[in-house]
């Protein structure tokens, strides 16, 4: 792994290619460090998989029998599975910011901030490592869905699309989490705000029911909720008969735009958490 402490100053006055190369190198170095932490202690992946398993096995089975939610020609379990994957991505990523607070308390953050790495690269690297957790959750959900007989789409294109959507979604919500952590600065406040945010984001989306069922005010909220576009992309890519309401291009563009905006905000706030 490339050492950040010996990476040399950023090529601010050099060519655009050199700046991009340095930015990418710093981001990859941070991501590698975070992924190594996950590989040393993978128990987090399995503990995070308990909740989506319960949603599919219990909630999904019950609502599939009631037939209370119209899902067209798809079974309710097929309809719900992409939403459960998106929920898993959200719940895993939204608490990612607490690691920044731990790093500050241990003095790690201060050491990172004195390196020549771009602040945006530090943020993007952590967002990329959150994507690794999202991919791990994807594998678990796919295995569970196969066991339950859910009609998944296979093939290089659909699976690659699912992975891209999961990586983007994980990056978006983990970066949002970093922004919150930079603002609140304490573990207690962060955990409280994280608990407040997760359920409204989940229920104000199309994860477990179509947008058409929602009252008008909730439809408006759902259309500005990034999770809605993640679910929409996953539903069109992941299950047979699934279709995107907004269009796959729109889904991915919204996710990418949200990520860029959040990285810019987090890069400006990042040094403040160490204060």
Short description:
By secondary structure, the protein is mainly alpha-helical.
Can you characterise this structure?
With 275 residues, the chain is an all-alpha fold. The protein has one domain (4-274). The protein is 72% helix and 0% strand. The protein contains twelve helices and no strands. α4 (76-93) runs parallel beside α8 (156-184), α7 packs across α8 and α8 runs parallel beside α12. Residues 1-13 have low confidence and may be disordered.
Keywords:
275 residues, globular, disordered N terminus, mainly alpha
Biggest sheet overview: none
Domain module count? 1
**Which structural category fits the helices and strands?**
mainly alpha
> pLDDT average, as an integer?
82
Rg (C-alpha, Å)? 19 Å
- Total helical segments: 12
Task: List strands and helices in order, with pairings.
Blueprint: H1 16-40, H2 43-48, H3 50-66, H4 76-93, H5 98-106, H6 108-113, H7 119-147, H8 156-184, H9 187-203, H10 216-223, H11 226-238, H12 248-269
Helix pairs in contact: 1-7, 3-4, 4-7, 4-8, 4-11, 7-8, 7-12, 8-9, 8-11, 8-12, 11-12
